[in-house]
Amino acid sequence: MVDQSREKAPGFSLKDAEGQLHKLDDYLGKKVVLYFYPKDNTSGCTDEALQFKDLYDEFKDNNTVIIGISKDSEKSHRNFIDKYDLPFILLSDPELEAIKGYDVWKLKKMYGKEYYGIVRSTFVIDEQGYIAEKFLNVKVKNHGDEVKKCILSI
Fold this sequence. Notes:
Blueprint: E1 13-16, E2 21-23, E3 31-36, H1 43-54, H2 56-61, E4 64-70, H3 74-84, E5 89-92, H4 97-101, E6 105-110, E7 113-118, E8 121-125, E9 131-135, H5 143-153
Parallel strand pairs: 3-4, 4-5
Antiparallel strand pairs: 1-2, 1-5, 3-8, 6-7, 8-9
């Protein structure tokens, strides 16, 4: 009997900074921290990435993979990874495949102007590929610790 209350994580097939293809199904058997962020090398996105970097070993010790996704190019991801020595995967989603699949492409407002962009969000996916927790409209401060607590509870 399948538990209908559990939401299957939407699949994707995206390239990393080296041009290697990654599919969500590649990580079945591991927990996945899948985080969506607006743009490489911006202050909030850098802070968030550095929190995940600082906690990387703890996530790894708990059978967890960290994957960041934005619209940025593979080259932009390569530069961001190199600049901050990020130990986890960043995937490029210029066609909005995963971004729209996880419903994080939203109308935003800044300085009175409206535009579409990524709403900072994190999805914790269990070893069977189901969404265990959603963090929507993420505030960066202490976010890494919130996600770590979630990982330790599943």
